[in-house]
Design brief:
- This protein folds into 2 domains: 233 residues, Type I PLP-dependent aspartate aminotransferase-like (Major domain) (Aspartate Aminotransferase, domain 2), CATH 3.40.640.10; 101 residues, Aspartate Aminotransferase, domain 1, CATH 3.90.1150.10.
- It is 33% helix and 16% strand.
- It contains 9 helices and 14 strands.
- Helix 2 crosses helix 6 and helix 3 packs across helix 4.
- The longest helix has 21 residues.
- It is globular, with a radius of gyration of 21 Å.
- It binds pyridoxal-5'-phosphate (PLP).
- The site of pyridoxal-5'-phosphate has 11 residues, from helix 3.
């Protein structure tokens, strides 16, 4: 294996939807600690998850996440495996009684997947769908058909593929609100107390893949149906500090470094300010041009995932090739949507968005 000094200036601007860019400072810290974590003579990857050292790393990560989101004391924070997709099953297995009904809001591919999986476990009412708006707008809550006795209401706060994001929190009274926040957690302020359960796959705004974070109100624990696999029972995970079995130790550690980095940046409020400026700049570049377009209703445009099309799709290949040459990577849109998509998570700085906007203007001038 070739070993060479890392040249930070060689790091590209990575607009990947996930696994996504991580802060360079975090990777450098992990690099510095790789062979010898804090003088212990071993890597975090080689530690027992039961060791005092690792338990301290894991607890600090949890505490930092709690601080960042001001998680109330009556919520558990779990660091689990299986990705956000496993939660599509874990949620009904824990929260939907066999003879009950759960309400789901369908706003795109990810919420659709959650619905399809939940249907394997019980009655699902699709209370609202963005289909009538071609998934370009979110139906207002007045148009939702919520069930009278739903076990919970599920929605996806940011559809990573379509680029459709709620800028409001559904009001569902005493029914637990469950949100897939895989692609927008920690990007703007959030009142955790409005939710029964929040889950997020790590590989966008949290850390590397291999981890899903679940924030769950304690009164929702202990409701799993008897057929629920042990590994998917939230109460068992909570009672064992997310260590019923060996957790994804390195992903958990690296996520902890991301939380420390976020605190150093000024926390979620600071990220919200930066993210607002980033998305304003990019959407303005799209809207000011006749060459680029984004179809999403303005109040539902995602701050994190910005899909856009070129006026002539025959130019897509040239656009992507030029972007690659300039170190602007992973701008190809999802195969189901086509066009381009720029994912501008927390670790993608304003400098990356400025470089992208400058390239877009240059390409338009030359090729439009
Ligand atoms: C909003 C959303 N939900 C769920 C998932 C699935 O996540 P995972 O690959 O961790 O299962 C993704 C992945 O991109 C996503 O963006």
């Amino acid at each position: 294996m070739n070993l060479r000094e890392t040249d930070v200036s060689k790091r590209a601007f990575n607009f990947c939807a996930g696994p996504a860019a991580l802060p360079t400072a975090v990777l450098q810290r992990a690099q510095a600690e790789m062979l010898d974590w804090q003088g212990k003579g071993l890597s975090v990857m080689e530690m027992s998850h039961r060791s005092d050292e690792y338990v301290a790393i894991a607890s600090q990560a949890e505490q930092d996440l709690r601080d960042l989101l001001a998680v109330p004391n009556d919520y558990k924070v779990l660091f689990l495996q299986g990705g956000a997709s496993q939660q599509f099953a874990e949620i009904p297995l824990n929260l939907l009684p066999e003879d009950g009904v759960a309400d789901y809001v369908e706003t795109g591919i990810w919420s659709k997947k959650a619905i399809e999986e939940a249907r394997r476990y019980g009655a699902i009412n699709v209370a609202a769908s963005a289909k009538a708006h071609d998934y370009f707008a979110i139906p207002g809550q007045n148009d939702w058909q919520l069930s009278k006795d739903a076990a919970y209401v599920h929605y996806c706060s940011n559809e990573t593929i379509g680029g459709l994001q709620f800028d409001w929190v559904p009001q569902v009274g005493d029914t637990p609100l469950v949100a897939d926040m895989s692609s927008d957690i920690l990007s703007r302020s959030l009142d955790v107390s409005q939710f029964g359960l929040i889950y997020a796959g790590a590989q966008k705004n949290i850390g590397p893949s291999g981890l899903v974070v679940v924030i769950v109100r304690e009164d929702l624990l202990g409701r799993a149906r008897s057929s629920c696999p042990t590994m998917l029972d939230y109460k068992i995970s909570a009672d064992n500090g997310s260590m019923y079995n060996t957790p994804a130790t390195y992903s958990w550690y690296l996520s902890g470094l991301v939380f420390q980095w976020l605190k150093e940046q000024g926390g979620v409020e600071a990220m919200e300010r930066i993210n607002r400026a980033k998305k304003d700049l990019l959407y303005k570049a799209i809207d000011d041009s006749d060459f680029y377009s984004n179809p999403i209703a303005h109040n539902a445009r995602s701050w994190m995932n910005v899909p856009f099309r070129l006026a002539d799709e025959k130019l897509d290949k040239a656009f992507l090739a030029g972007a690659d040459e300039r170190g602007l990577l992973n701008l190809k849109g999802h195969r189901s949507v086509g066009g381009m998509r720029a994912s501008i998570y927390n670790a993608v700085g304003m400098d990356a968005v400025e470089a992208l906007v400058a390239y877009m203007a240059e390409f338009e001038k030359e090729r439009a």
